[in-house]
Amino acid sequence: MIQRDGSRISLWQSEIPGYKPQNNPDTQAIYDVAIIGGGITGISTAFQLQTAGKKCIVIEANNLCFGTTGGTTAHLNTLLDTPYTRIIKNFGKENAQLVAKAAAEAIDLIKTNIEQHKIDCEFEDASAYLFSQTSEQTEELDEIYEACQEVGLDISYNLSLPVNIDFDKAIEVRGQGKFHPVRYVLSLAKAFEEAGGIIIQHCRVNNAEQNEKVDIETDQGKIKASALIYATHIPPGINLLHMRCAPYRSYAMAIRLKNNNYPDNLTYDMYDPYHYYRTQKVNGRNYLIAGGKDHKTAHEENTNACFLQLENDIRKIFEIDEVVYKWSSQYFEPADGLPYIGHLPGQPGNIFVATGFGGNGMTYSNVAALLLTDLILNKSNKYTELFDPNRIKPIAGFANFIKENADVAKHLITGLFSAEKLESLSGISPGEGKIVKFEDHTIAIYKDEARNLHALNAKCMHMKCTVSWNNAEQSWDCPCHGARYDCDGKVLTGPSDRDMQVLKLNELIAENRVN
User: Fold this and answer.
1) What's the pLDDT tens digit per position in 26-40?
2) What CA–CA distances, in Å, run from 304 to 3, 145, 436, 473?
3) Which CATH superfamily is domain 122-177+247-333 in?
4) CB atoms within 10 A of CB 290
């Protein structure tokens, strides 16, 4: 079973062995491109570049599909989370048409890779259904319908839904898809290696500098490359993009139904956060995949309650036989609604990034693969300016930018936490984590099932915000920029590239007694 960045097992991990690279890295080589990150973005981009004649190396801090690729719900959409009404408002009709075209090309690329390399990932073409249940939602749905028509989607109103839900109005968008993301990525990784590519797992990048070449320092030695791509979901370190992307958690379940009445296609309601439903066949068995209950990372006190609420909502619609898997995953919402793909801000040389995919990472990952390949090959691409990470739009997304960063400032300045988190150390139950005060120290403390205490300095190593405990995934999550750590302080999710400071509690107590 592959590992991922949480304590809960996703549907995609089931019966999937960890990837074993076949090619040994050449420590003396200068690679054309180093791709940091072994998820769908990194592997797809590496494959495109390798087959275009570039010598590429993928460097993954853990194992392939450790991050969001191992926890996605794997919808392939041209009907995007950011509605085309907003994209047209922020970027204009012509650019919105480009976004729709880029999304369609991304899905076509996945289908082409599946066909050419005979990838068994249970891919199916599908339609997406979006439906309203209130008069306000219906008014918004009509506006979305018109905008989708303007950008060229294959869309129509529909009198029925794949799921048994009362609705006011519904639209169907054709040309969507669904698949098993981990099987797809691991098969593409094999094709990448067969083309001469190199994959290194369990190798963390500690630093990268643009000199004559890009000098990359890892915990397994130094690597040189002519160009570097951060395909890490959010770039590490401190960058302007951290002020333009807000981290969110989303919750999902894979369910067996009593009546075997599994819905076809993809279905979405219009609440905020919205619910989504689809079916996926894995090893000959159907599973209903349902998700929702999104919230900003580390801004929900009881993340386990999100699963309970989601299951309650699902039971109102479906006859559940068994909830087989439940998991959560992270995504980064861009301030103006579009991802950032291109040169990393502050790095005008050959350091590139792909981030801010929102809830459409499976699609935008392949938009990034195509765009970044052209940028590195010095080819013109009609999407370069549209997705440029250095774009400055004072109006588009400005309200969201101010809102998200005011929130960051609150945590940076005050380190807010509730009074109940200041209980004495003895108030912590097994399996629980809390932020507690002891003398002048703020401590992130976790008690494992054997009643052993794990104590950390509670400051995130990214920008020193105070972390919060995620009881659903048994992790310490940062409310500012989304860095996540396990109970021992090991990095699970960027942008932090350093582990939290481990505190030896007995030494800390002794120190304070002396002082």
Assistant:
1) 878 999 999 999 999
2) 21, 36, 21, 9
3) D-Amino Acid Oxidase, subunit A, domain 2 (3.30.9.10)
4) 27
Please give the structure tokens belonging to residue 383. 């999407």
For residues 108 and 89, give the distance between their C-alpha atoms in angstroms, rounded to a whole number: 27
CA distances from 458 to 299, 381, 423 (A): 16, 45, 15
Percent of all residues in the chain with a pLDDT value above 90, rounded to a whole number: 75
Please list, in sequence order, all residues whose beta carbon lies within 8 angstroms of the beta carbon of residue 316, skipping any fewer than 6 positions away. none
CATH superfamily name and code, 30-71+182-242+337-400 = FAD/NAD(P)-binding domain (3.50.50.60)
Give me the helix-helix angle, 93-116 and 135-151, nearest 10°.
80
- The Cα diameter of the chain in Å comes to 75
Q: How far apart are CA 1 and CA 17, in angstroms?
A: 5
Which pLDDT score, from 0 to 100, does residue 441 have? 76
Q: Which residues contact 378 (CB under 8 A, 6 or more apart)?
A: none
Residues in the chain: 515
* Model confidence, pTM: 0.90
